[in-house]
Amino acid sequence: MSDQREAVRSNAKYLRNVRPIDPEEICEYVEGNPHPAVVRQHLRELAPEPGLELIEREDGTFVPVEDDPVSPNRGPVEAFPADYSRALEDLLVERYGANWHADASGDLLRSTVRRFKERYLEGRRVEYDDDVAAGYAIYHLPGYYAAVQYALDDLAERGLLDRSLRVLDVGAGVGGPALGLADYLPDDALLEYHAIEPSAAADVLEDLLPETGRNVHTTVHRTTAEAFDPATLGADGDGEERFDPTAPDDGFDLVLACNVLSELEDPAAVARKYLRALAPDGTMLAMAPADKNTSIQLRDVERRLEDQQVRPDADEDGGTGTVTVYGPAVRLWPGERPADRGWTFDTRPDLEVPAFQRKLEDAASEDDPDHEPGEFVNVDVQFSYSLLRLDGRRRIDVELDTGDWAKMAEMDRHVPNRIDVVGAKLSRSLSEDGNGRGRSGPNPLFKISDGSEDVDHYAVVTKETALNRPLLEADYGELCSFEQVLALWNDDEGAYNLVVDEETIVDRIG
């Protein structure tokens, strides 16, 4: 480290707990009296360093980040922010011209979106060039930006998201989860963000990241998830040791693996590799689209990793080193693990249509026989996710007793009786009155789980009453008790239906 940089660092460490660090003051104590702007740049680069962890305030001074955890969001994510929209449109104008959405360039982008959507539905891998990256950003950025924030609520609600975060984003793509994370954090939070992205999507990502806040420190590593070695992040640009992400007491606070596992040859092996780089109290957030194949695959990876000891050297006080499913899936019976197909996803309110999607949609030719109205508008927020930790913590830490509750693994012996059951609500309504995915019928229907089931279980509301309405009001992932629910086998669906009617009492368990 240069003498000048080391002098700035030493002064900052001395002053951080005394008073706000002012670059104009520090420059007087550094040999050569560098300009305050030079000192400020040094401070910005040093800010995420362990032992400093500084945030820059609006007045240009630096102070230590607070210890208080991040609070959860209040209310839905309503729109993709205008700053990011403008940055994306600037990139599109630079690449394709002012009329990027029209004429030949618009036709190219529309055909590109159609092509990668088709390949995705066929289960084929999408190869990213500049055009695919641009089309992917137009179509997917808003939904992924919103989805990650809803998933982070599960951590923030329980005080598990610190104001100082070291994050590794595996397969960062064009940046939807990165931007969502940056906006989820308050202005006085410190984010050290590392992205792994080998494709042309990284060009879009690098254009958008500068729009994040002053206390977001970003680095993009242009390599594959399989090739990247987290240990290479153990030193800064001057060779000074910063942290060892593979050490028992160090590592990343959050590892993101969003919409990438389905594109890997061995997703469980890659996820296991990055779980080893978690801090003892860190979390891996894996996400996938809500469609059947990728959602089921995500749950399969989760189950293959569960109970594996990936950090045998983990600190005894900070973690066990063994993979635990934190949520939203539950494990309510000791020693039991689910073996159903695992198709569970959350659905949140649609976003406002961003201008760049509207432009691409409205410029489609009326003579195009392949065009379907709304084809290039994608503001749905539907996603599957899994939160994995190494400290044994679960979002819902409950152990049931067969003396009080029926176990879903033994549901065959309860049909066709009325029973008492506890389960997590793991879907919004799947009926035709809901979003129509997977099941049909006029009655509200929800996937439920207690973590022991071999086949799918659904709660079907045939008669709504004040006593069973809590099921309709419960949030995704929330635990509910069902008293006097009727257990039936649905031969057509190959699943158990738990009928909620006028005799059933449902309570939300906090």
From TrEMBL:
Ranges for region Disordered: 307-326, 429-448
Domain DUF8157: 5-58, 409-509
InterPro entries: DUF8157_C, DUF8157_N, SAM-dependent_MTases_sf
Pfam families the record matches: DUF8157 (PF26486), DUF8157_C (PF26487), Methyltransf_23 (PF13489)
Keywords carried by this UniProt record: Methyltransferase, Transferase
Record's keyword annotation contains Iron-sulfur: no
Domain of life: Archaea
GO biological process: methylation
Transmembrane segment boundaries: none
Protein name: Methyltransferase domain-containing protein
